[in-house]
Amino acid sequence: MINNNSMNKKITFLNIILYLLFFVILVRLFYLQIIERNYYLEKLSNKTNQIIYEDTSLRGRIYDRNKKILVDNQLVMTIIYQKEDNISMKDEIKLAYQISSKIDLNYHKLTTSYLKDFFLLNHNDDIEKRVGLEDKNKLKKRMISNSEYYQIKKSLVTKEDIDIYDDIDKKAIYLYYLMNNGYSYMEKIIKENCTIEEFMYFGENNHNLHGFDTKYQYGRVYFYNNTLKTILGNVGFIPSENKDYYLNKGYSLNDKVGLSNIEMVYEDILKSEKAIYLIRNNEKILVREALKGKDIQLTIDINLQKVVDDILEDEVKRAKASYNSKYYNHSYVLISDTYGGILAMSGKEIVKGKIVDVAIGNITDTVTPGSVVKAASMLVGYDTGAIKIGEVIKDECIKIKATPKKCSVYTMGYISDINALAFSSNVYQFKTAIRVGKGQYHYNESLKLDLKAFDTYRDYFARFGLGVTTGIDLPNESRGYKGSNRNAGLLLNFAIGQYDTYTNIQLNQYISTIARDGNRYKMHLLDSIMEKGNIIKKIEPNLLNTIDISNKYLRRVQEGLKAVNSYGSGKNYSLIKSAGKTGTSESFVDSDNDGKIDHETISVNYVMYAPINNPKVAISINSPHISLPSSNYKYPINQNVIKRITKVINQYV
Q: 3-state class of 163 per DSSP?
């Protein structure tokens, strides 16, 4: 017989347990429904609602300084692809081969890396057999990730493997790449600016093309064709090597971005903001409207730019057609407002008999400057106490033991500092450099100098913008070449611009700094940022440094540069009152591209500013390899270009 007391105790215990369980459940329900209510409602919303982004707005325009449109947006015929549900990889590849014959694509953009990816898609089992046992074990033991294992397999795809693909294959493979570049659910742009025939084919047959269709969408239009195209840059899909950078900034893989130069540098300003929609219960609800990108205004004057382009193109053709120009093929011109704002930037090159625009070469290509740097060399002499204002020095050939004579273009006899600049005396600078280097010169004897003078010269030159970046708002600006060897003869060469090399934009900043009494301003193309037609930010001149040199020395050099254009070596260059400096340098070319210098040439440079008393513009030009040294004749391209430019530049001076 069961003891009732014992049974009651058990029942009481079970009741207590049940009460505790109910209490825990109630507490949990209270926590979920009251305290964490908003959290779980949000979780539910995220499961039942979807946020989508639509790029329905426009990229910002690019204007010149006078608000003439340089770059805008226009509707273009576009072929698109939207992946269908449940389509297999094999079906997509088959589709790519079928469609590729109906569309003209630049499949030369196809990289070796993607050819290997495609080979792996179709031959994974074969490549898997090539993987070593050690790497397979690392994957099993999770010592390497799946992506790392994939890269191992990809590295085992050989050149012979991908050489099986002919041009027909590559075109289809490139199309397949475009079909799958980005997230699977996104609409892919296959081709913009397609032909009418392509547009009609894909539009009329879209019901049979399994995801291919047509639409009109906005693309970039450059109103002045190739004028400044290398400076303005271009827009396109996100490059694979920059994928992570843009994804981290909130872009999608099929978004378009600025790929080069102005379009790239000012991407954050020019880009549009996508519209945001909430999909709830199959209803599309607008959360935020699309926003047009902000506009930018450049310092460029497109009318002046076109004039300079036409002048330079004409003179480059004439120079190439002239005697003694075997290795000549290009020239660069840059005009600024002396506060760093670029008014025109031109470069013209002859390639296979045709003229191409190479304006970007003003910041990327370097040249041995020659005598244009002598104003800076003269200031080094003044400021270090090596020479005095008005000092007369004998221009005569100098001879250092075991080296050829070093002379000016002609022997000038006793010459003042002003005339040394006006007539471009090399010897005046040689003897100044010897003093800066604390040396003593004796005819045909060894010359010992304190080679720290190299640092002295380079430090002064850098303050003017020579051998350093100018601050230009473009990527890939070159600093120029800095010679590494040091000896007495090379120091003398440096002083006359025959050692280190500089870009044309550096030469422009240098002459502008002298014109602005030693104030060096950052070179720039951006003038202002605009929104809805109103300027919201104006770019003011940016002073980089002021050269700590006495005004009397700067004034003296300015007098010398004025003499250059008044009666010296630049007398017949400018048609307006100006100050400037000519320069001729020895240069070299590798004519057969074997990595070895095989021919000596002559390059010419020129810099100037105007007006003399209140400088408003600075112009620099260089024409590398204009002639061979075997003849004194050089087509006067710099002189002709400057004459023609100064004839039409009156509005700025």
A: coil
